[in-house]
Amino acid sequence: MDPSSSASASPSDELPGRLWPPSHRVQAPTPATASWSRGPADGPPAFEPPTSMIAPLFSRRLERIHICRVTFELDINTRPTSHVLGGYYRSRRLVRIYTHDTRDGRRPFRELFETFLHEVAHHLEYTEPQTFHSEVCRRVPGRMHSQLFWRILGELKFRWAEVVAQHR
Ligand SMILES: [Zn+2]
Fold first, then answer.
1. Ranges of residues in the chain whose predicted pLDDT is under 50
2. Hey, CA dihedral for 11, 16, 22, 27, is it positive or negative?
3. Residue 31 has what pLDDT?
């Protein structure tokens, strides 16, 4: 899809101040070199669904690896960003994924899904830490990623890898 045609932003885009700062946001690794590769080196050509399909696909994928006790809102945001890939807004239980890179256009679906799992892990560390064998959210103030966060994210990635492996 032509990135320049995505100017029709949702209303929430007009109110960045109300949401800022997010509880957390993902930064892209400092891009020292060129853009991302467009798919796994050892796999078939990357799967790139239309932007409108991202939210339903993510929801369906998540259902297969974890049923959230507390729902969250998912905002697939087409406003181009250069470094920020996504964020989790704790007070609103909102996961936001930025789909477009300022320079390269639509980010690879694979990368978007990784960002999605990352933000969902933040959601889970707040809303159901006990699911992942912790009594309370062990987030240390000033530290963006707790041990619990990494455990949750690792578990989600592991489960998804199992789903993928079953369908090979
Ligand atoms: Zn994070």
1. 1-20, 31-38
2. positive
3. 43
Q: Is there a contact between 125 and 139 (Cβ–Cβ < 8 Å)?
A: yes
Distance 97 CA to ligand 1 centre (A): 12
| CA gap 88, 138 in Å, rounded | 17
Distance of CA 114 from the midpoint of ligand 1 (Å): 11
> Could you tell me if 117 and 56 are in contact, meaning their C-beta atoms sit under 8 angstroms apart?
no
CA of 149 to the centre of ligand 1 (A): 8
In the prediction, which pLDDT does 46 show? Answer: 75
Burial category of 88 from C-beta neighbours within 10 Å (exposed 0-12, middle 13-18, buried 19 and up): buried
Q: What pTM did the predictor assign?
A: 0.74
Distance 160 CA to ligand 1 centre (A): 19
Q: Could you state, in order of their start, the residue ranges of all structural domains in the chain? A: 19-30+45-166
